[in-house]
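agent> Task received from the user: take the single chain below, predict its 3D structure, and emit structure tokens. No templates, no multimer pairing.
agent> Plan: (1) validate residues, (2) run structure prediction, (3) serialize to tokens, (4) report one or two observations.
agent> Step 1 OK, no nonstandard residues flagged.
tool_call: predict_structure(input=
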Amino acid sequence: MSKVKNETMIELIGDHGFHLHNDKISYVLTVMANGQLGHLYYGKALSPLTATELDYLQAQASKSAGTVKYSPATGNFNLADRAQEYPVYGSSDFRRGALDVYAGNEPWYLDFSYQSYTITDTKPRSLAQPATYAVGNQEAQELAITLVDQVHQLKLVTYYTIFRAHGVIARRSTLTNLGASSVMIQNMMSAVLELPDDQFEMVNLAGAWLKERHVKYHNLAQGTVAVESLKGASGHQHNPFIALTRSRSLTTGDVYASNLIYSGNFLSQVEVNEWHKPRLMTGISPAYFGWQLAPAAAFSTPEALLYYSADGLNGLMAETQAVAQQQIADRQWQRRPRPIVFNNWEATYFNFDETKLLTLAQQAKQLGMECFVVDDGWFGHRDSDRTSLGDWRVDHRKFPHGVGHFAQQIHDLGLQMGLWFEPEMVSPDTPLYRDHPDWVVRHPYPRTAIGRGQYVLDFANPAVVTAIYAQIKPVIEAAQLDFIKWDMNRNITEAYSTYLAAQGLPQTEFFHRYILGVYDLYQRILTDFPDLLIEGCAGGGGRFDLGMLFYSPQMWPSDDSDAVERLSILSGTTLAYPLSAFSNHVSAVPNDQVGRMTPLKMRQNVADFGPLGYELDITKLPAPELAAIKANIDFYRQHRELLVNGHFQQLQSLDPDANTVAWSVANADQSELFVGFYRKLATPNTSVLNYLKLLNIAVNRHYQIDDGPIVSGQVLQQFGLREPYQFNGANADTAELRGDFQSRLYHLVAVD
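)
tool_result: status=success, residues=752
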């Protein structure tokens, strides 16, 4: 090894170890006896390690029972019981590996040996593909380790990025074919983390359309627990994020987690071996995946994140949210206020014209809203969801003078202008479909599946992406758009690309090339319109992932806008994603998705946490409700920075079935915070005196509660914030909450 540079976060230990560290974490890896990379430690920050300590951590003087020796030259050394950085199957390790390569029908049993390393101080943001980034040369450092399999002529470079301020390691790998013949990659994971014991629960975020990203717990045992999507998107059912936690405590205990900066098919899994050692892996799902690697060609995995916190689930939440806000999402959206949106969808559905929309816009402006978004139905002859996708021309029946004329009227009101698009889809009754039926994703079978009356466009074909952008760009320019809602309402079936077939490329490349095409369209739009706010939406929460967050700083989390259901969705989502990503709308009652009747106060008290919007017919509301909306918007505008970008914490256990939910959001110095308290259903004869212990608070300060009593942070943390008095059948004169679906927002300000 060459001499390491004097870096503060990446240190060389002897001639065969690396120590990545900051004030929160240490990550230690080594070159093992066989030349491959071994994993030694990930956890709380360590002082510098000596070469002797490194050797002590990896010493193996005894052969594990039932194992096969790696080689006669390495004694008792084997890979079956070794923690590895990038393991491969078949050479004394029988667990799932991170990389599978075939030459024709022959599997290769790979053997990557250490060759060299480099350290860099910069990691610029590039719109070409989502990944973490750093501003300047002080925020992060990246270690690149080059390994070579001489027999199979493959070069593997594994990248490790550590950030000065965060408890996270970013991982990715690149494989290059140094040989003279093409090979096939059939599996290539983004990151692997091996842990010393299995005394964890696995946490994942699961659900379905209208009930996305609920917190689920799974016991670890010998075997494999996995979450996966094969829908061409991360999906409503599962999310790439998984965590391993010692306990369900919000404040204490080791928590490890992974997430993938990717929006396509994924696999996240934990495999426990016979010695109770877990191996966590995440990356592109190997199912229906294969990548032809020509001579001199390279393939790079999406980037994955490996988090660590010693402070329980809230500690993990602090890391995931900070990394997403500061190192993944476009940082300009931390500085620019998120507009308060009015979206016409649930107010009008497809039944609107320019006059009706202008009436809504005028009312929205009077109430204090800032951006008017015209949802589905403005283009082609779109009077239902069975037509016109791919025909991105304004419907002159609804906008007789064009979308530019309408947008100018919106801008003249002092509102920003937004439009809905579903650019990845096409309807059969469009010029695009008639001219290019080969641009549709479908297998050349007699039968073709169709969903919502629409097909998916082949975004693996660059010509398709170019054609769609050629339609969209003039609309953005004509309307001088400030905001786009990007929807995706139909998952991929019978994945097949006539383009790939014509290019002689395997169909197993389709899913990955498809999502790269989606990223390409994002890149084209944001390159030409860098200040445009794009809200991601995939049938609601069907593509709520870090890949989308890279381009869309906020996302529509679910088509279920019911305030009660949003409590569970937000609680799960914020375990892995920042509050600033959670687009929250106040909609009408009875709620369109579940039929529930919730008070306006409850709906607003939920929606105030995160980017705020309204989606109901405000021209039909009674005067008291209009006044309440205006008052809430005035309040939100005054406190928007804190409610969107503040430090968010849960105050009660993450249980989707809990009857009460409580959370807080605080500023950086804990001088101001809001606490949201929510009760779903009334219960009989409840206790009058209940207290909510605050976590996100300075114990040595005093706080005024809602312009009322002044209480020390010590009391609020150790004893708690008094919950509102709930009606118990005998306290009608003093009860603050009565009936189902009740809430209370507390505002606490430090006075010293």
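agent> Step 4: summary for the user.
The CA atoms of residues 245 and 255 lie 4 Å apart.
agent> Done.
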